[in-house]
Amino acid sequence: MKYKVLTGLLSVSVGMTTFTQMPANAQSLSDIHKKQADNKAKQHKKKAQMDHVKGEHNAVLQELKSIEAKYKQTKNEITSKKTEISTTKQKIVQLKKEIMVINKRIQKREALLKERLRSIYENGGTVKYLEVVLGSQSFGDFLDRVFSINTIADSDKQLLKEQKEDKEAVEQDKKHVENQLASLTTKLGELNDLQDKLKGQKEAKSRLSASLKSKEEHIHKDLLSMKEQDEILADQEKAAKAEILRAKREAAEQQRKEAEQAKREAADRHKEKASKPALQAPAEEPSSPNPAPAPKPAPSHGSASFSWPASGSISSPFGNRSFQGPEFHPGIDIANAGSNVPVSAAASGTVIRSYLSSSYGNCVFIASYKNGQMYTTVYAHMSARAVSAGQTVSQGQRIGTMGSTGNSTGQHLHFEIHKGEWNYAKSNAVNPLSYLQ
Q1: Across-strand partners of 379?
Q2: Where is this region: Disordered (predicted)?
Q3: Rg (the chain; Cα; Å)
Q4: Direct distance between the N- and C-terminal alpha carbons of the chain, in angstroms, rounded to an integer
Q5: All residues at 6 or more sequence positions from 204 whose CB lies less than 8 Å from its CB, including other chains
Q6: In which residue ranges of the chain is CATH 2.70.70.10 found?
Q7: Residue 190: pLDDT band by 50, 70, 90 thresholds?
C-alpha cells in the first residue's frame, strides 16, 4: 500500500514538473517570434532607407559625372586657349620684327620726303615746273623734261601712298593682334573661373558622394547585423525547442532514478521489518498509512547556477563603462595571457550557433533550460571553436579556446548570460557574477 502511494506521488510529481515547464516554453518561443517579427520590420525599413540613399547616391554620381565631363571639356578648352595665346604671342613677336622692317622703310621714305621738301624749300617753296619745261632746248628735250616731272610727281605720290599704307597696316595689324590677345586672355580668365567653379562643385559632390557612400555602408552593416540577428533568432528557436526537450528528458531520467531509488529503499525497509522476530502480536495497522517522503522541491529560478567558463581575472565588469565613450557592457571580460586557455560551457545545454562574427569574432551561443527558465550564454572572441550548432554540451565541456578575434584588443573571453533569449538590444542580459559559482 505504501509502495503504491509512493509510486503514485512520484508520477504526479513528474507530471506536474512537465506541466509547469510548458508555459515557460511557450513564453520563450513567443518572445523569439516577437523579436523575429520586429527584426523583419526593421529590416524592411532599413532596406527602404537603403533604396532611398542609393537613389540619392546614384543621382549625385550622375551629377558628378556631368561635372567631371564639363571639367574635362573646360580643361581642354583652357589648354587650347593657352596654345592660341602662345601662338598669338609668337605672332606679336613676328609682327614686331615686321614692324621694325616697315619702320626702317618708313624712315627711308621720310628721309627722301624730307630731302624733297628741303629741295622744294630751297627753290622758293615750289618747284617751277614751267621754267623747267620752257628751258628745254628741243621738243625731244621738252618731252624728256615733261616725262621726268611726271615721274617725279608720280614717285612722290607713290611714296606718300606707300608711307600711308605701311603706317595703316602696322597700326591695323598691331591693333588686331592686341585685340586678339586681349580676347584670348579674357576667355582664358573666364575658363579658369569656370574651372575653379567646376572644381568646387566637383569637390562638393565628391564629399556628398563619400558621405552617401558611408551612409550606405553603415546601413549595409546594419542590415548585415539584422540578418545576423535574424539568423541567431531562428537558430535560437530551434535550439530552444531542442534544449527544452533535452532538459525534460534529463529531468524525467533524474526523477525516474530517484523513484527507483525510493522504491529500492522502501523494499529494503520492508524486508528488514519482515526479517525481525515477532516478540508480540503485531499491532493493528493504523487506518491511515505513514505518508511517503515528499519529492525534493525544484530549485527556484534565482538558484540557477553556472560554472566559470574560463580561468583568469576580470578585466572589464558588467554594466555601464566609459572605455571609449559611454557604453553598456552586457557581460564580463575574463583575461588570461596564457597559451591554449580552454573555454568551457558554463551550463549544460544546446548550441544555438557556432560561427565567426564580425564583432564577436569566433563565438558560441548556448541555450540552457534550468529550473523552468531558459538562459542563453555567449562566449566571444575565441581563437578557435570546438562545438557546432545543434550539438548538446555538458557543463564544464570544452567548447573553444580563449583568443582575440573580432572587435578585441587583447586575449580574453567575453562572457554573457541572458535570462531568456539573446536579442540585439541585450535587454535580457544579467550580471554573470550573480550566477557564477
Answers
A1: 364, 415
A2: 248-311
A3: 54
A4: 43
A5: none
A6: 303-437
A7: confident
Q: For residues 223 and 147, what is the distance between their CA atoms, to the nearest angstrom?
A: 108
Instruction: Report helix, strand or coil for 136.
Output: coil
Q: Distance of CA 353 to CAs 100, 229, 269, 308, 410, Å?
A: 94, 11, 50, 20, 23
Angle, helix 2-122 to helix 139-275, in steps of 10 degrees: 170
Residue-wise pLDDT for 296-354, tens only, equals 333 333 456 899 999 999 999 999 876 555 678 999 999 999 999 999 999 999 999 99
| CA atoms within 13 A of residue 366's CA, in its CB half-sphere | 35
At the second CATH level, the architecture of 303-437 is Distorted Sandwich (2.70)
Give CA 436 to chain center in angstroms. 38
Cell triple for residue 115?
Answer: 630731302
Q: Model confidence at 188, in pLDDT bands (50, 70, 90)?
A: confident
Separation CA 104–CA 106 (nearest Å): 5
pLDDT greater than 50 at residue 292: no
* 373 within 8 A of 24, measured Cβ to Cβ: yes
Residues 200 and 64: beta-carbon distance below 8 Å: no
The dihedral through the CA atoms of 293, 298, 299, 304 has a sign that is: positive
Q: Report phi then psi at 418, rounded to 5.
A: -115, 125
Residue 423 neighbours by CB distance under 10 Å: 21
Which residue, chain included where needed, has cell 614692324?
Answer: 99
| Cα–Cα distance measured from residue 383 to residue 405, given in angstroms and rounded to the nearest whole number | 6
Model confidence over 146-163: pLDDT tens digits? Answer: 565 556 556 666 767 776
**Phi, psi values for residue 397, rounded to 5°:** -75, 140
User: In the prediction, which pLDDT does 32 show?
Assistant: 66
Q: Collapsing DSSP states into helix, strand and coil, what is residue 349? A: strand
Of the candidates 109, 112, 118, the residue with the CA atom closest to the CA atom of residue 165: 109
Average pLDDT, the chain: 76
Q: What would the pLDDT profile of 260-272 be if each residue is shown by its tens digit?
A: 898 888 888 888 8
Residues 159-186 have pLDDT tens digits of 677 767 777 777 777 777 778 788 888 8
